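Input structure tokens:
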């Protein structure tokens, strides 16, 4: 079996988790794309009033995860960050309530219908500020399409 220009023996295919080989040496399931690289887009969000931070997508991509790293002390304020595909929510609102610098907040929901972007599309981060310091960085992990 080969993946790209690399040839694998059947035992290597199984050991590497690349697929399943039946008793006759025939691949019976699809193999993973070992050439796929997860990339990360980091969007810096300044401490400012409620509003949007828009980023033009430079390549076709599929978002697979998103999380926020707090950079200020939010206190007990109901500040949130939400990732959107244009104006449509991609993630749930990630709450920075009672978070301090270096705390991580993950998206707990991702709308699978909104994960794909084409070059030139708008990736929007909506900042909802109730008080405290909402300065943070949003990490959006994706694979190129």
């Amino acid at each position: 079996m080969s993946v790209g220009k690399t040839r694998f023996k059947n035992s290597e295919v199984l050991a590497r988790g690349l697929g399943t080989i039946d008793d006759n040496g025939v691949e019976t399931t699809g193999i993973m794309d070992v050439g796929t690289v997860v990339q990360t887009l980091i969007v810096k969000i300044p401490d400012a009033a409620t509003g949007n931070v828009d980023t033009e997508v430079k390549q076709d991509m599929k978002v697979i995860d998103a999380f926020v790293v707090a950079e200020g002390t939010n206190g007990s304020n109901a500040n949130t960050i939400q990732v959107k595909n244009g104006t449509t929510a991609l993630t749930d609102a990630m709450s920075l309530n009672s978070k301090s610098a270096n705390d991580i907040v993950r998206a707990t929901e991702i709308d699978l219908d909104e994960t794909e972007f084409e070059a030139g599309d708008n990736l929007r981060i909506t900042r909802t500020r109730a008080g405290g310091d909402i300065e943070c960085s949003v990490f959006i992990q994706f694979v190129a399409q």
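The CA atoms of residues 87 and 124 lie 7 Å apart. Helices lie at 10-15.
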